[in-house]
Write a structure and sequence with these properties.
The radius of gyration is 24 Å and the shape is globular. The protein folds into two domains: about 35 residues, no CATH class; about 110 residues, Sandwich (Immunoglobulin-like). The protein has four helices and ten strands. The longest helix is centred in the middle third of the chain and has 19 residues.
Length: about 210
């Protein structure tokens, strides 16, 4: 896998650039970065032109009963779309905050200098970093807590912090996990009185 020469550009921003080519900053980055250029090439190959619709002449047909019911079906579908609960599909590691949007939690494990992103297991001596991704231009307060399976008490290994949103922003500080049971690592995200949590679980290696 080709590594980015600097801070990676998010996939949505590359998609917009592939369509308009209007962002000079992204254009300059892509021109020097083989990894981001490869992403732009993949996005461009995914754009498929739809064939032109051909309307064939047909003879008039008698109206069927369900044609008159189509407006009612459309209204029912719209009501279902608006009222259908959406939180059930939300991932545990994503918090949703008013004024900020989605905040995605990720973990980075350092094992004797070997760095692994999105690790899901731990061993004694591992060090952990909390990484958050949210839309640039926003800021939010975060607090990290860790709860061992079966415990009612949460540890707070990192001091609360204020972060400026961006792609994979590292929360200051690092911590270790001990014990022989799973640990639930959560970030409480707060902005203007609105609070939500994003969590991930890591399990001990046997």
């Amino acid at each position: 896998m080709i590594a980015c020469i600097g801070e990676p550009i998010s996939w949505p921003r590359l998609e917009r650039f592939a369509q308009t080519r209007a962002d000079a900053a992204i254009a300059a980055h892509v021109a020097q970065c083989p990894a981001c250029q490869q992403c732009v090439d993949e996005i461009s190959r995914d754009v498929v032109a739809l064939p032109q619709l051909v309307i064939a002449a047909t003879t008039p047909r008698r109206a069927r009963w369900w044609w008159f019911a189509l407006p009612a079906f459309a209204v029912a579908a719209l009501v279902l779309l608006v009222t259908w609960p959406r939180d059930h599909a939300r991932r545990d590691n994503v918090a949703s905050i008013k004024g900020v949007g989605e905040v995605t939690l990720a973990l980075v494990r350092d094992r004797g200098g070997a760095i692994l992103e999105d690790a899901t297991t731990f061993a004694r001596g591992d060090r952990w970093k909390v990484v958050l991704t949210c839309a640039p231009g926003h800021a939010t307060s975060v607090a990290v807590d860790v709860v061992e399976a079966g415990s009612a008490t949460a540890d707070h290994p990192l001091a609360p912090a204020q972060i400026a949103c961006g792609n994979r922003v590292v929360v200051p500080g690092a911590f270790e996990l001990t014990g022989t049971v799973a640990n639930r690592i959560c970030v409480q995200v707060t902005n203007d009185g609105d609070t939500d949590r994003a969590c991930l679980t890591v399990t001990p290696e046997r």
